[in-house]
Amino acid sequence: MQTDSWPYRLLVALSGITLVLVVVYIFVIQDNRSVQSEVNQRQQFINQSIQLGRVNDALIRALAATAVSNKDDKLRDLLAQNGITINPTTGAPEREAAPATAAPAATGR
Predict the structure, then answer these.
(1) 95 with 84: CB under 8 angstroms?
(2) What is the DSSP string of 55-78?
(3) pLDDT in tens, 72-108
């Protein structure tokens, strides 16, 4: 094949474009892997937070039951300082309502 012919130049140009696309593809894959790793870390944090929330609720219930059964005013005060009130009839803990926050404005698309 002659180096001055148009098919040769076309093939060289297509080869160069292919090489550039392969390099871009490699960078995109690496970026995708780092984003996927970050998403996986966030999901793990969410899952652990849910598990810790369950442990937290069980701990609060145990503390409330202990405060009621032992008539421990210091423990009741400690729970109250952290926003937890104990129902005097059942001994079940109740969280105080959090202050209402303004709802975010809806964005139209």
Answers:
(1) yes
(2) HHHHHHHHHHHHHHHTT-HHHHHH
(3) 889 888 888 988 888 766 666 766 554 444 444 545 4
